[in-house]
Amino acid sequence: MNTPSPLLHLNHLKTHFFTVEGTAKAVDDVSFSLNKGETIGLVGESGCGKSVTALSIMRLVKDPPGKIVSGEILFDGTDLLQIPASRMKSIRGKRIAMIFQEPMTSLNPVYTIGDQIAEMLLVHENLSKKESWERAVDMIAKVQIPVPERRAHEYPHQLSGGMRQRAMIAMALACKPEILIADEPTTALDVTVQAQILDLMQQLKEEFGTAIILISHDLGIIAETVERIVVMYAGKVVEEGPSLSVFDAPKHPYTKGLFKSRPKIGERSQFGRRRLLEIQGAVPNLFQLPGGCSFHTRCVEAVETCRRISPELISTSDNRKVRCHLANP
Amino acid sequence: MKGTSMIQMLRKSPTAVAGCIIVALVLLSAAFAPWLSPYSPVDMDLYSRLKPPSLKHPLGTDELGRDLLSRIIWGARVSLKVGVISVGIGLIFGVVLGLVGAYFGGVTEKTIFGVVDLLLSIPSLLLALAIVATLGPGITQVMVAVGISLVPAFARVTRGSVLTVKEQNYVLGAKALGASHFDIMTRYILPNVITPVIVLATLNLAFALIMEAALSFLGIGVQPPDPTWGSILSEGRMTIRTASWVSTFSGLAITLTVMGFNLLGDGLRDLLDPRMRRILQAK
Asked: How many Cβ pairs within 8 Å bridge chains A and B?
């Protein structure tokens, strides 16, 4: 099943934040891989380490206080943590690109979007000014912004949120990167626009063959888009597997809880009025993680072992992985 | 195309037009001083000392009988030069130091702002005096001295804005898309912090003119009989009760020029901001 060498492989990555209050293990021993052209979803509550994982891949964790303590990030065989900063710079944007949650503030307000996309091409590809401008207009057309020739001359504040996110995508994909990391790309947008943006990403993925890491807390979005799902909790991967089978039969109590706490349209009429299920408690403080399994304080299935021993991520049948004492291999 | 539209937009703002006109007038009179001034700025006429404004001397004469209008026109040359160049020195060094310090943070920031704060703690006149005392009197020294004393203000203002802007998402976005530090500083941060710097520059122009006056007054700036607005102003100080026109008109020249630059600065600031540009275009 496994392809011999994945495009990106995170190997026991640990990113910790050293502050006066102590050490926060934002990313604690995270491993997963991404194959060429694949879309994976990184899911979890706020503060579970999704974004820090993404920033670690880009080597953009703010230092201080953040620091990648150990682990490997193998991209096409090379460890991104070992290469010099100058080489990393040439990889960012060119081979691995990233887009962020807030399209409202992710574009430079003083340049037109055409300029900003063209600049990407100027930096990374040996194109003339004119060629890169033409390619920029092309890209704007590709992300389905109407009248691209005119829009290219507009400033970010003249575009709507959805348009700006499209412009961001155009910018990120301008150099045809092998990996696109999308950190909550649709969270700030309204639902119809969300769907459009996701469709667009799907289309472009097929066109450019880009692998995507989609970070979201919205299971609906993840379900529609990704092939494989990685669930994170308190800095650790708790479950991983093909998204269909994870959705059908989650194995980790946390994943089960996440799925149960989704409101479902039409359910009320079927079963009458019912309270939406929630996971009791709150995300643990990263400075004081509970001993044993970090989820045991909120887990409905927790047994004595969970309080004492931190479970390992074990591979189960059907190509899945789960970090729980109760899961059967 | 782009150039004409800039000028057209500038024309939409009446204050910017006023600023432009004033600055242009001052610049022209400085450039054409030999042809515009009715008399030589240094020739004395001891028979007509401290004469009030008349047809012969439109702005009157000073205590050595020199024509005030001619002195003010010639003075524009020195004063403008000192003002613009010293503000330029302060702006360039201040902005670069503030930008680099605030962007990189850590030891770089501590070192740069340690020095800047040290400079800031010395009164600027004292600092300028010390510099002129080291380098000797003269107009170049005055420009350098005033320029250096302006550096801390520019550095501080720049730093403040950079600290906000560098946390913006688009800066992180630029990093994620592979922009170099230099690119980020010049294309992402600098254009977004320049507004307060421009305003500060226009305000500091007045400060520079007055500093120059103070230094000239203390005898370590521009040497007499070369006229500068500051030196005319301070010469008039002694006769302000009997011949108020000497300080009045030189003071007016300073005020008007500063106002012109301020208005022009405001106009430029609006023009540099794409949002305001939109509003101006719509008018």
From this structure: 74
Cβ contact A151:A159 at 8 Å: yes
Query: pLDDT tens digits for A138-158?
Result: 889 888 888 988 999 998 888
Helix, strand, coil content of chain B in percent (nearest 5): 80, 0, 20
Q: Residue ranges of chain B with pLDDT lower than 50?
A: 1-3
Parallel, antiparallel or unpaired: strands A211-216 and A39-43: parallel
* Nearest residue to B240 (alpha-carbon basis) of B60, B83, B43, B38: B60
C-alpha to C-alpha distance for B167 and B103, rounded to whole angstroms: 10
B173, closest residue in chain A (CA to CA): A106
Measured in angstroms, the CA of A180 and the nearest CA of chain B are apart by: 11
Q: Is the peptide bond before B225 cis (omega within 30 degrees of 0)?
A: yes
Strands across the sheet containing A22-34: A22-34, A8-19, A66-75, A78-79
Nearest Cα neighbor of B130 from B220, B42, B40, B194 is B220
Residue in B closest to A65 by C-alpha: B106
What is d(CA B51, CA B246) in angstroms, rounded to the nearest whole number? 10
Instruction: Give phi and psi for A100, each to the nearest 5.
Output: -115, 170
A113 CB near a chain B CB, below 8 Å? no
Size (chain A), residues: 329
Contact A13, A80 (CB under 8 A): no
Asked if A89 and B176 come within 8 Å (Cβ–Cβ), the reply is no
**Cis bond leading into A64, ω under 30°?**
yes
Residues of A in contact with B176 (CB under 8 A): 58, 60, 92-93, 97-100
Place of tokens 């688009």: B170
Gap between the terminal Cα atoms of chain B: 19
- A156 close to A168: Cβ distance less than 8 angstroms: no
SS3 state of residue B133: helix
What distance lies between CA B147 and its chain's CA centroid? 10
> How many other CB atoms are there within 10 angstroms of residue A17's CB atom?
21
Q: Edge-to-edge, what's the strand order for the sheet holding A320-322?
A: A96-99, A179-183, A211-216, A39-43, A228-233, A236-242, A320-322, A314-316
User: How many Å is the Cα radius of gyration of chain A?
Assistant: 21
Q: How far apart are CA B196 and CA B202, in angstroms?
A: 10
SS (H, E, C) B17-35: HHHHHHHHHHHHHHHCHHH
What are the chain A neighbours of B169 within 8 Å (beta carbons)? Answer: 100, 102, 105-106
Taking an 8 Å cut-off on Cβ atoms, the answer to whether A108 and B174 are in contact is: yes
pLDDT tens by residue, A148-206? 889 999 988 888 888 888 888 888 888 888 999 988 888 777 888 888 888 888 888 88
Q: What is the dihedral of CA B120, B124, B127, B128, to 10 degrees?
A: 140
Q: What token pair was written down for A276?
A: 């939406």
What is the per-residue pLDDT across A5-19, written as a single tens digit (0 to 9) for each? 788 998 889 998 888
Cβ of A90 within 8 Å of Cβ of B178? The answer is: yes
**What's the rounded Cα separation, in Å, for the pair B232 and B237?**
9
